[in-house]
């Protein structure tokens, strides 16, 4: 059974989605057994349920600022994409810039710390922030970003992530016991 999925991505991300000579679009189509049509920022994806859903997530990730190599991690069934839309948390453009800055940090430090502690990739683009990784890790990164958006101290967020990382490692070690 075939479905059709329609998305809109920012105009400046269309060239990234298509890639040099159509390479990115072709890679998505080949990996997901779908047909992708791009006109301006309008994207339609035609394929079976699972392939179409994966292609949609990869296209959405590229549209939200991820480079294709990172977005391609979504071909792995264990990886998920989660997007936080800032419109729920802001009243003005100035506030948007401040909240994005809290997630990114000086010279990208905060974003890198969250990525390293959660083994995820984060993109802050436009009026949203996206996270790609394993489900549990994405949820930890999302919680950290929401805490920052809501005004929590960076040190508190880092401490929570460190604690979560240790608990996750202990659980993984327990799971591998004979």
Explain the overall architecture.
A hairpin with a 2-residue loop joins strand 2 and strand 3. The protein folds into two domains: 2-75, Ribosomal Protein S8, Chain: A, domain 1 (2-Layer Sandwich); 79-175, K Homology domain, type 1 (Ribosomal Protein S8, Chain: A, domain 1), CATH 3.30.1370. It has 178 residues and is of the alpha+beta class. Helix 2 (23-32) runs antiparallel to helix 3 (49-63), helix 6 runs antiparallel to helix 7 (135-149) and helix 6 runs parallel beside helix 8. It has eight helices and six strands; from the N terminus they run βααββααβααββαα. The strands form two sheets. The protein has a three-stranded antiparallel sheet with strand order 1-3-2. It has a three-stranded antiparallel sheet with strand order 4-6-5, sandwiched between helices. The radius of gyration is 18 Å and the shape is globular. The protein has helices at 14-18, 23-32, 49-63, 68-71, 93-104, 109-118, 135-149, 154-175, and strands at residues 2-8, 34-39, 42-48, 79-85, 121-125, 128-134. 52% of the residues lie in helices and 22% in strands.
Q: What's the alpha carbon Rg, rounded to whole Å?
A: 18 Å
What's the CATH superfamily of the largest domain, by name? K Homology domain, type 1
Give average pLDDT, whole number: 90
Could you give a short account of the major beta sheet? 3 strands, antiparallel
**Oligomeric state of this protein:** single chain
Give the tally of β-strands.
Answer: 6
Order of helices and strands: EHHEEHHEHHEEHH
CATH domain fold name of the largest domain = Ribosomal Protein S8, Chain: A, domain 1
Q: How far apart lie the N and C ends?
A: 43 Å
Q: Could you give the order of strands across the largest sheet?
A: 1-3-2
Q: What's the helix count?
A: 8
Strand content: 15-25%
Low-confidence stretches: none
**Shape estimate:** globular
| CATH class category label of the largest domain | Alpha Beta
Helix content: 40-55%
- Structural class of the helices, strands and pairings? alpha+beta
Number of domains: 2
Q: Which CATH-level-2 architecture of the largest domain?
A: 2-Layer Sandwich
